[in-house]
Amino acid sequence: MNRISPLLAAAVVAVALLTVPALAAGAIPKKSGSYEGTLHASAELALSKRVVIKVSSTGTRARTTFWCGTQRPANWISFAIKKDGSFKAFSNTGSLTVWSIVGRFVTPGKVVAVLHLNATCDGKGGRFVAKLVV
């Protein structure tokens, strides 16, 4: 019968415990950084959307806006950035969520997020990546 040595088992457990928090943790955004990304048209009637996320000078808040095709941005959302780099924000009219964004800073130079366009633009949101430009 093959047995795993206690030293090998301890090493495997130690590596696993160190790896899990690293995978779950996000990143701290660059203070005063500006991140830009594009949500490309995924359907015949969908428009491409340029998304901009601007981080505050403290790095704890940000604001985002998007362009629906070539139109000027109609709205923006300000939101808090959690210590793990995650965020979520909703633009509501009464009890109706018009649009929202949920995401995470995965590195200081990169954001992965989902733009939900419930009742604005063409109604077609999706996942996008934004990169630090300033």
How would you summarize what this structure contains?
The model is unreliable at 15-23 (pLDDT under 50). This protein has one domain (34-132): Porin. The protein has one helix and eight strands; from the N terminus they run αββββββββ.
Topology:
Elements: H1 6-24, E1 34-39, E2 49-55, E3 61-68, E4 76-80, E5 86-93, E6 96-107, E7 110-116, E8 126-132
Antiparallel strand pairs: 1-2, 1-8, 2-3, 3-4, 5-6, 6-7, 7-8
Strand content: 35-45%
Class from helix and strand fractions: mainly beta
- Count of domains: 1
Global Rg: 19 Å
Succession of helices and strands: HEEEEEEEE
What is the name of the CATH topology?
A: Porin
Shape: globular
Low-confidence stretches: 15-23
Mean pLDDT: 85
Q: How many runs of DSSP E, i.e. beta strands? A: 8
Task: State the separation between the terminal residues, measured CA to CA.
Answer: 60 Å
Query: Main beta sheet, described?
Result: 8 strands, antiparallel
* Estimated helix fraction: 10-25%
Query: Looking across the biggest beta sheet, what order are the strands in?
Result: 4-3-2-1-8-7-6-5
CATH class identity? Mainly Beta
Question: What is the CATH architecture descriptor?
Answer: Beta Barrel
Question: Please, how many helices?
Answer: 1
Please, could you describe this protein's structure?
This protein has about 130 residues and is mainly beta. The chain has one domain (about 35-130): Porin. It is about 15% helix and about 45% strand. The protein is built from 1 helix and 8 strands. The chain has one helix at about 5-25; strands at about 35-40, 50-55, 60-70, 75-80, 85-95, 95-105, 110-115, 125-130. It has an 8-stranded antiparallel β-sheet with strand order 4-3-2-1-8-7-6-5, with no helix packed on it. A hairpin with a 2-residue loop joins strand 6 (about 95-105) and strand 7. The longest helix has 19 residues, at about 5-25.
